[in-house]
């Protein structure tokens, strides 16, 4: 194991053991390096790496602190990687959404409250035939984000938000080229909300699968050559 990797692992163990918690300040570099039996240079590199992935927060002139370790913060590194995708990988992103989002809807259906249904209904009612394609995509992002949050799993919600935000270009493209994109999206959203309102877990899962798969299928038809 590389020395820097060993340093990262030891700091991680301090956090998982509870020696360091969210918001705690790390001991000075020299003291920490001696405690863990590592060189100061390897400790410095480990801290830099953990700062990049938002585990540590280096405050110049103040010290190094453990971040809040909130899921959205820790998953920013994944979001960064996803943002670097090229057009050929968008289909793969949709495939992952197709796996995750139906489960989020199913979980949300089991936990649905009148407040959730009201919030989703307001979101749908804010869109009509005069809404721009960009406005429709904003609505779509908000709709799926609300359901993912309602699923009650912060890591799942963060992953879905990262993936969903990274497919915006494809969804705008669909809205510009496919007839009745607004009406179709709203109809599918209303069906999902109705399933959530009834607490129908399996129906919510199935309707979300069809909804996400519809965009994926459309994109595949546009990007893959037609067989002779």
UniProtKB/TrEMBL annotation:
Annotated HTH gntR-type domain residues: 1-69
Gene3D superfamilies the record matches: GntR ligand-binding domain-like (1.20.120.530), Winged helix-like DNA-binding domain superfamily/Winged helix DNA-binding domain (1.10.10.10)
CDD domains, sorted: WHTH_GntR (cd07377)
Keyword field: DNA-binding, Transcription, Transcription regulation
Top-rank taxon, per record: Bacteria
Database matches in Pfam families: FCD, GntR
Keyword Flavoprotein attached: no
GO MF annotation: an example: DNA-binding transcription factor activity
Name assigned to this protein: FadR family transcriptional regulator
Lineage summary: Bacteria, Bacillati, Actinomycetota, Actinomycetes, Micrococcales
């Amino acid at each position: 194991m590389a020395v820097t990797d060993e340093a990262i692992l030891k700091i991680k163990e301090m956090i998982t053991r509870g020696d360091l918690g969210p918001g705690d300040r790390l001991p000075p570099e020299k003291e920490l390096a001696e405690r863990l039996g590592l060189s100061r240079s390897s400790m410095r590199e480990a801290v830099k790496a953990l700062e990049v992935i938002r585990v540590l927060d280096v405050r110049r002139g103040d010290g190094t602190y453990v971040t809040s370790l909130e899921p959205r913060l820790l998953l920013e590194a994944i979001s960064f990687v996803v943002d670097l995708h090229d057009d050929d990988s968008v289909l793969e992103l949709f495939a992952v959404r197709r796996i995750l989002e139906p489960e989020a809807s199913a979980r949300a259906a089991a936990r649905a409250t009148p407040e959730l249904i009201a919030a989703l209904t307001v979101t749908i009612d804010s869109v009509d035939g005069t809404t721009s394609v960009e406005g429709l995509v904003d609505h779509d992002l908000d709709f799926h984000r609300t359901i993912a949050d309602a699923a009650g799993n912060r890591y799942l919600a963060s992953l879905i938000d990262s993936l969903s935000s990274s497919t915006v270009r494809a969804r705008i493209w669909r809205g510009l080229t496919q007839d009745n994109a607004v009406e179709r999206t709203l109809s599918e959203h209303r069906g999902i909300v109705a399933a959530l309102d009834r607490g129908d877990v399996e129906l919510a899962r199935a309707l979300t699968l069809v909804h996400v798969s519809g965009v994926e299928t459309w994109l595949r038809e546009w990007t893959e050559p037609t067989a002779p």
